[in-house]
Design brief:
Elements (H helix, E strand, L loop, with lengths): L8 H14 L35 E4 L11 H12 L4 E8 L5 E8 L15 E2 L5 H13 L33 H5 L12 H7 L4 H4 L6 H9 L15 H15 L3 H13 L21 E4 L2 E4 L15 E2 L1 H12 L6 H8 L13 E4 L5 E9 L2 E7 L5 E7 L8 H11 L15
Antiparallel strand pairs: 1-3, 2-3, 2-11, 4-7, 5-6, 8-9, 9-10, 10-11
Length: 431
């Protein structure tokens, strides 16, 4: 779910509390509690003193369809809470119906602490691990085409020269399957947790190393240099290394970089015109705001960086609109065959924690929504929607950690669990 590294005890405890209350099994299964992918680890940004006061929340509705659709006010209030708890700015986009026949954009706070400008619906931002569902979609398409199977060993589909084992053979891609990469049961060490690398990527070394270039093979070698967290298939443990390897598998199987295959197989068919994979380009497309991280006791502008640190695990740049378009197409069955859609949602190997690039969140009212989230320096985003993809919300903040992790659940709960929606359904009904 996330690209982040350090996890002080307080942050880990907060996310454990969040997991206990919100994340459970697939829709239709008995409620089960599971732990979400690793929590972020920096303290929340301190209130800035050198910028204008946060702008009031705004609310922009597209023309309503004949049936009428009004997002309840609590959804906007949830954005206010994100800002009150330390995020410089927050924004959300709700869509209903395939093709976004009804949409509502809301924002609170600011996109830029110096200029004070507000976030807009068109703003580009780094999406972190929201890259993973797109990678998983391409892998499942290749499975449907018979070019690989979920039971294949990962090492059988890697480009020449890519390492497959670590020192002493403790970490061995020859024993890891494609499915285990997709659902995070490979046991591979999470490369972003390497102590030296984490300091460079997110810690005190960020300033000196923000433009360092990293190859997938180099990052994989770092991961394989650590003992595995468990034997392959033994248990679920989120690791960015898994999707780093899946990007290499896509390259080996198709003969094209993973980003090129996502553009051909996902972005163009689904009409995602504002989504990109920057490679080593440190800049964000226009328009965009700024991203902020807390490093030590300083709030740092982390907008510009070399995204090769994330690669297939989290380099994507997108917009709220494109996120909703993607998940509408994916959950609506436009990108995968029925058999692969079933696999996508299958969490039986993870005890209900994660499917194949997707996870389910059971909200306090009993509604289960599907999606993913992600963060990377200066950015956190999340998308969730009903099982058919007809009701979606994507939201983002321009910082990489939430001061109060339950704020994220508040946004989803406000959207999917109002006491009574304009369409007459209660939030207690299953999606």
């Amino acid at each position: 779910m996330r690209m982040r590294l350090r996890r002080p005890a307080a942050a880990a405890a907060a996310f454990a509390a969040l997991a206990a209350s919100t994340l459970t099994a697939c829709a239709g299964d008995p409620p089960r509690t599971h732990v979400p992918p690793p929590a972020t680890g920096h303290r929340a940004p301190a209130p800035a003193t050198d910028h204008r006061a946060p702008a009031p929340a705004t609310d922009h509705r597209a023309p309503a369809p004949a049936t009428g659709y009004r997002t309840p006010a609590p959804a906007t209030a949830a954005l206010h809470r994100l800002v009150a708890d330390g995020a410089p700015g927050a924004a959300s986009l709700v869509t209903r119906g395939h093709g976004s026949t009804a949409a509502r954009f809301a924002t609170a706070g600011v996109a830029d602490l110096r200029s004070g400008r507000r976030m807009t619906r068109q703003d580009h931002f780094r999406a972190g691990s929201l890259t993973k569902p797109l990678v998983a979609t391409v892998v499942l398409q290749l499975v449907a085409e018979g070019k690989l199977t979920l039971h294949d060993a990962a090492a059988a589909h890697l480009p020449p020269g890519v390492p497959v084992t670590g020192d002493g053979g403790r970490s061995d891609l020859r024993k890891v399957t494609v499915r285990q990469l997709l659902d995070h049961t490979s046991g591979l060490f999470n490369y972003t947790e390497d102590r030296r690398l984490s300091r460079q990527l997110y810690g005190t070394g960020f300033g000196a190393h923000r433009y360092d270039h990293h190859t997938p093979a180099e990052l994989l070698r770092t991961a394989l240099g650590h003992p595995p967290s468990a034997a392959p298939g033994a248990r679920y443990r989120y690791s960015n290394t898994n999707y780093l390897v899946l990007g290499l598998i896509i390259q080996a199987v198709t003969g094209h970089p993973y980003a090129a295959e996502i553009r051909r197989r996902v972005l163009r068919p689904a009409g995602l015109r504002q989504t990109s994979f920057p490679g080593t380009d440190p800049a964000l497309p226009q328009p965009h705001g700024r991203g902020y991280s807390r490093i030590g006791d300083r709030q740092v502008d982390t907008t510009s960086l070399d995204p090769s640190r994330a690669g297939a695990a989290g380099e994507m740049i997108t917009t709220l609109g494109d996120l909703n378009r993607f998940f509408s197409a994916l959950l609506g069955g436009a990108l995968l065959a029925p058999r692969q859609m079933t696999e996508l949602r299958s969490d039986k190997h993870t005890g209900g924690a994660y499917g194949l690039g997707l996870y389910a969140t059971r909200l306090p009212c009993g509604v289960t929504v599907w999606g993913h989230n992600g963060d990377i320096n200066g950015s956190f985003a999340q998308t969730a929607g009903t099982a058919d993809g007809r009701h979606l919300v994507s939201f983002r903040v321009n910082t990489d950690v939430l001061a109060r992790p339950l704020d994220a659940t508040d946004v989803l709960t406000a959207e999917f669990c109002p006491a009574r929606r304009a369409d007459g359904h209660t939030g207690k009904a299953a999606p």
